[in-house]
Amino acid sequence: SSLSSYNSGLWIEDCDIDEDELLAMLSPEELKELQSEMDVMIAPDDNVPVGQRQKDQTEKPPTGTFDHRSLVGYLYWEKESNRMLEEERECKIKEINEESPEDDQKFEETTIKAEISNSENSTEQTQEGIKGADKETDPPPPMTSRPSGNETNLESTLDKVRNNNPSVTEVNLNNIENIPKEMLLDYVNALKKNKHVKTFSIANTGVDENIAFNIANMLRENRGITTLNIESNFVTGKGIVAIIRCLQFNETLTELRFHNQRHMLGHHAEMEISRLLKANNTLVKMGYHFEQPGPRMVVTNLLTRNLDWQRQLRKEEQKQQLLKEQKEMLQMYENSLNLPPGLLQMLGYPLEVLQEHGLVPPLENMAESRIQPAKEHSEPPKQLKHNSIPKTKKNQKNRKTH
C-alpha cells in the first residue's frame, strides 16, 4: 500500500509538469537535438507518402519553379546538335576513304618541306634578332589625344561617307570612347547608298541591339562593303541572327566578325546562324567561336563551300578574259591583213597556228605590247602568203583534179 501511494504521488507530480515552460528554457541547439532524437524514437506513419516522411535537411534556398517546356527544348536541341555532328563526321570519313594513297604521300612530302623551311626561317630570325640587339632601339610612337590611339575625325569622315567620296575606302572607329549612338546610326544609314567603302569596323564602341538591326537593314541595300567588324560590343543573339538573315540578299560581304559580345548568343542562336548561312555564297571568313560542336562543323563546311565556289568563279572569269583577248587579237590581225571579219576563226586557225608562222606574237608579250606605247615608225605587218597557209584536204583534191 505504501508503494502504491508513493507511485501515485510521482504520477501526480509528473502530471503537474509544464512542457511549454521546459521547451522555452532550451536553447536552439538543444531543440534541434531533441527533434532529431524524437524522429528516431517515433515510428513513421504509413499513411504519409514516402517522400514526405523524411525531414528536409537542405539549407539552400530554392532556385525557382520547375519549367518543363525549357527542359524539353534543351533535350531537343541536344539531340539535334548530336545528330548534326554525327552527319558531319560521317561525311568526313567518306571523303577520307575516297582519297588515294598518292595524296597521302604528297601530303607527307609537303609537311617535310614545310618543317625544313620553318627550321631555316627560325635560324635566320634568331641571327637577325642577335644583330638587331646591338642597334639602338626605335623611338616610342608619338602620344595621341585619345587613349585608344584612334585619331579618326568623326564628323569629316561622316560627311565624306554621305557624299560617297571615293577617297574613303575604310571606316575605322574601333575603340573610340563615348561615340554617341545617334552618330553610329548616321554612319550606318550613310553606308546604305555608299559604293566606295570596303571595310567598316566599329569594335568596342558600345553597339547595341538597335544598331545591329540597322546594320542588318544596311546590308540589304549596300553593295560595296566586304568586311564588317562589330566585335566586343553589346549585341545579343537576336541582333546577330538578324544580320545573318540579311546576308541572303547581300553578295559582296566576305568577312564578318562578331566575337566577344557582352551577352552570350546561346545554342538556339548558333543553330539559327548555321541554318541561315546556307543561303549565302559569298561569306568566306567568320570571326566567332561557336560553343556547340554541331553548328561549328556546319558553318565550317559552309565557309569552305563558299571558298571553293569563289575560286571556281575566279577561274571562269580568267578563262573568259583569255578568250576575249584572243578574239580581240584575231580581229586586230584580220583588220591588218585586210581579211573579212571572222574568217580566221571560221577557217579554224587558232592563235597557235598564226604564232608558228610569225604573224602573231606569243601570249606572254600581249600584255607588254599593250602597255608599251606604239612607235612612230612601226614596221608594216606581214602579209598572209598563200604558201604559208597550211594545206587542207579540200585544196589537195582540187589540185589532183586539175
TrEMBL record:
Q: Where in the cell is it found?
A: Cytoplasm, Cytoskeleton; Cytoplasm, Myofibril, Sarcomere, M line
Pfam families reported in the protein's UniProt record: Tropomodulin
Q: What GO biological process, any one, is recorded here?
A: actin filament organization
GO CC annotations, alphabetized: M band; striated muscle thin filament
Regions annotated as coiled coil: 299-336
Give the matching SUPFAM superfamilies: RNI-like
Residue span of region Disordered: 46-67, 114-166, 366-402
Q: Name the domain of life this protein comes from.
A: Eukaryota
Q: Which InterPro entries match?
A: LRR_dom_sf, TMOD
Q: Where is the composition biased (Basic and acidic residues)?
A: 373-382
State the family it belongs to.
Answer: Belongs to the tropomodulin family.
Protein known as: Leiomodin-3
* Species this chain originates from: Neogobius melanostomus
